[in-house]
Amino acid sequence: MVTLPKALATRRSELITRLAEPWHYDIAIVGGGATGLGVALDAAARGLRVVLVESHDFAKGTSSRSTKLVHGGVRYLAQGNISLVREALNERSLLLNNAPYLAQPLQFVMPTYRWWEVGFYGAGLKMYDLLAGRAGLGKTELLGCKETLAYLPALRAQGLQGAVKYWDGQFNDARLAIVLARTAASYGALLVNYCRATGLTYDNGKVSGLACEDQLTGKGYQLPSPCVVNATGVWVDELRHKDGLAVPGDHGRATQPIVASSQGVHIVVERDFLGADVAMMVPRTADGRVLFAVPWLGKVILGTTDTPRHDLAREPIAFKEEIEFILSESAKYLRRAPTLADVKSIWVGLRPLVKPQQDEGGSTKGLSREHTILISRSGMVTVTGGKWTTYRAMAADVLDKCIEHQLIAPTQESTTKTLRLLGSGAESASAAVRPLTGAPGWHSYGTEQAFIKTLPGAAEALCAGLTVAMVRFAARYEYALTVEDVLARRSRLLFLDARLAIELAARVGEVLREETQKDPKVQEFRSLAANYLLQS
Fold first, then answer.
1. 334: which DSSP letter?
2. Phi–psi pair at 486, nearest 5 degrees
3. Domain tally for the chain?
4. Which tens digits make up the pLDDT trace of 249-261?
5. pTM, whole model, 2 decimals?
6. What is the 3-class SS of 354-405, one letter each residue?
7. In this model, does residue 362 exceed pLDDT 70?
8. For a designed S-S bond to 471, which of 80, 199, 379, 511 qualifies (C-beta 3.0 to 4.6 A apart)?
9. 216/329 same-domain check
10. Phi, psi (degrees; rounded to nearest 5) at 259
11. CA 234, 178, 513, 213 torsion: positive or negative?
C-alpha cells in the first residue's frame, strides 16, 4: 500500500499542539507567501528550528495571483537591468529542475506588425539567450509570417510581418507554495496558517520573539526567537510600524513606508481564443505595458496591467478600465477577440514594489522590482520586493544576512539549489511530465498521485481535474480548512472558472466538514467567488 510519512500530516489540532509547546526557535517567520515559505524551507534544510505563521492561508495574497510565468524578465532587459535578468534566468533553471511537475519550459511568440520589429526584438532576445547561458531553455528564432501563424493560428494575419520565438517558463504558483510549505515541514519546520502575528516581544530593546493568535479560536501564543523575519509582501509596513513604535529612537525611520503596491489584473478565457500551447507576448501595448496571452491549465490567461494601488485590500477588485484595456489590446492581435461575455474568471494581484529613497509618486514603472532586506534597530528582519522566480535566491540572501548580523548562528550554506520539492521524485527536469498548458488532473500532484488515488473518493470526480480524494488530501496533508483553500489554491478552479467553483462549493464543503469537523465557510466562498466574475 502506498503511504506518506506521518510527519507530513497537517491536522489543525496537531499543529496547534506543537505551537503551544514551550519551544525556542532559531527563526520565526511572519508571512506564508513565496518569500516566507522559501525562507522556512531554506532554514529548515540548514537544520534550524523554524516556525512560520500566516494570518490567512498560504499564498492567499500575491503569491497565488501571478501571471504564472517563471521568467528572467524580458521587459527588465529592455530597461537595462542586466543583473536582475541574469539572476532570474539562473533561478528559472533551478526551479524547473526542482519541481518539474509544477514548473516547465514554455515557448513564447512575439508577433510583429512593423518591418523593423523582428530584427530589433530578435537582437534583444538573442541577448536573453546569452545571459541564460547553460541555463537556457531553447534558442531564439526569427519567424516569417507562415511560420508565425503555424505556431499561433488564432493570430490576426493582416499586417503581420513575422515574429520572434523564444523560451521562458510557466508554473502553478499556489500549488508550488503549498509544496514549499510541505517540504519545509518534512524538514521539521512548523508552519501554521490562519495564525496572525499580533506583535513582537523584546529583551533590552532587541527582538526576542513573536506573539501570535490562532484565528480560529482567538487563543494567543508566544514564540521565543532571537530572529524574526517579516516576509508579508505588500503588507510589510504594518509590522515595521509596530516595531518602530516599540523601539525608542527608531520611530521616524522604521515607520516610513517602503512599499508602493502595483495592481496586476488577469482575465481568463477559453483555450480556443489562442488555439495553441505556446504563449503570445506583446512587448509594447498602446501605453507601453506588456501584454501576455498564456495557455495555462486548459484555459488562456490574458494580462496584465500595472496600475498604482494605494489601499492594500486582501481581495482587490479590477478597475473597469483595466478590463477594457486588456480586452481591447487583445483584439488588436487575436483574430477572434474575447468579449466580456467570454470571461471565465478575473483575478487581481498586488505587487510589492520597493520605493526609491525619494518617492516621486505616480507611475510604478520607476520603482524597484528587486528585493530589499532591512534590519531594524531592534533586529527585526524585513524582506520585500522581488518576484516568484527569484524566491529561492531571496530566501538564501535573507538567511545569509541574518547570519551576518548574528541573529542566527552560522550554518551550512544553502542547499536549496538542488533540493527537489515533494512530488518531484528523482527524475530529471527533462523527464516526461504533462504540460501545464493542458487541463489539470492527477499530474498536478507529481509522484504523490499514486497515494492520493488510495484515498476515499478517488473515483468521484467533482469536475475535470478535481476528485473527492483530492479534497481529502488537501484537508489531511495540505493545510486546507475552507472551501476557498481548496478551490482557490489546492485546486485552481476559482481562477479558471468562477461560476463552476461556486456550483461545487457545497459538495467540497461537505467533504471538508467530514475531514476537519470545522465550518468550511461555504457561503463566504460564494460571496468571494462572485468578485471573480464580471460585475454588472
1. B
2. -75, -50
3. 3
4. 655 555 688 988 8
5. 0.94
6. ECCCCCCCCCCCCCECCCEEEECCCCCEEEECCCHHHHHHHHHHHHHHHHHC
7. no
8. 511
9. no
10. -115, 135
11. negative
